[in-house]
Amino acid sequence: MTSSNRFSDPELTIVLVSYNTKDLTLECIRSVFEQTRSIPFEVIVLDNASTDGSAEALREAFPDIHLIASSENLGFGRANNLLAKQARGRRILLLNPDTVVLDHAVDRLCEFADKNPDRRIWGGRTVFADGTLNPSSCWADATLWSVFCYVTGLSRFNWSRLFNPEGYGSWKRDTVRAVDIVTGCFFLIDKDLWQQLGGFDPQFFMYGEEADLCMRARRFGARPTITPAATIVHHGHASEPDRAEQRIKVLAGRITLMQRHRPPLTLAIAKMLYLMLPIVRLVAYQAAGMVLQKEDYRRSASAARYMWLNRDRWINGWDDMSIAQAQFWRQSALPK
Questions:
Q1: Burial classification of residue 159, based on how many CB atoms lie within 10 Å of its CB (0-12 exposed, 13-18 middle, 19 or more buried)
Q2: Which residue, 34, 201, 212, 274, is the most exposed by fewest CB within 10 angstroms?
Q3: Res 1 pLDDT > 50
Q4: Helices and strands (H, E) in the chain, number of each type
């Protein structure tokens, strides 16, 4: 399939949102072109005001793609909403820039969607660069029990469905299975369903928006489903190397999700549990650092302290103030 007829009448629109991931984004798009052969597609990229030369490098390497270079960081949800408005395909594939397409995974995912059109949202299997399972391609809905397990560390018993309910216990993503949430790193959806739902809720700056969309889609009869036939590499957290900042954003997303889909009492209890998280980790890592004298534990304790001191940035979810603060902290963290 030549470059021209890939783009002339696309059945699929592949959208990517990049932020300071130049080399990874180039590798991702290169793998898309190398591995996608059966379906006409177009690629649309929004660069979220990167400072590493991403936009310039993408223009030079892939002049055929549609590139939008934003002058501000729109976040993940809003950026994808903007990209989806440009889509010409009947389906939209959200693909993270820190992924690599393996063994015709996009073709295989589209074939699976064609055979199972009633699912309306589809995802694949993700692995780390060394080929080991990256279980983050899908999740189950959060409950108060799962939040308790997450906060107390019980979810680290990841083989247990009891203690790791959001991660589906020991399931290796090696069978076809309906799931609650397909994550946005490799997320295929019918465009008409996307439009019916209004895309991502723009209140989510990042993290949690695909969970919210899947929960709303299921009310319209969608059945998000994972297939192991489509496998990609997903490195994870490439655009947010600061783990403390990443955890703050995850917590903001999780609380916003509770605000959208859970009753007030459940939300109040969940907030109290989430407030325990940095305290539990601070105590545990400080104790481990003192006993074992390992610098990794001391750094983790410092990150937990940072999360606690910045709890006003996440305890109320992704409200407008949180978004403004996220922008400020991103900019302040840039090298001078």
A1: exposed
A2: 34
A3: no
A4: 12, 12
Measured distance CA(208)–CA(257) in Å, rounded: 6
How far apart, in whole angstroms, are the C-alpha atoms of residue 336 and residue 333?
Answer: 9
- The one-letter amino acid code at 23 reads D
Q: How far is CA 190 from CA 116, 118, 177, in A?
A: 12, 10, 19
Identify the H or E element spanning 243.
helix 243-261
Q: How many CB atoms lie within 10 A of CB 174?
A: 11
CA distance 169 to 110: 27
How would you classify residue 153: left for phi > 0, otherwise alpha for psi between -120 and 50, otherwise beta? left
Question: Token pair of 143, please?
Answer: 């409950």
What the block records as the tokens of 105 is 């995974």
pTM of the full predicted structure?
0.90
Residue pLDDT, tens place only, 57-107: 999 999 999 999 999 999 999 999 999 999 999 999 999 999 999 999 999
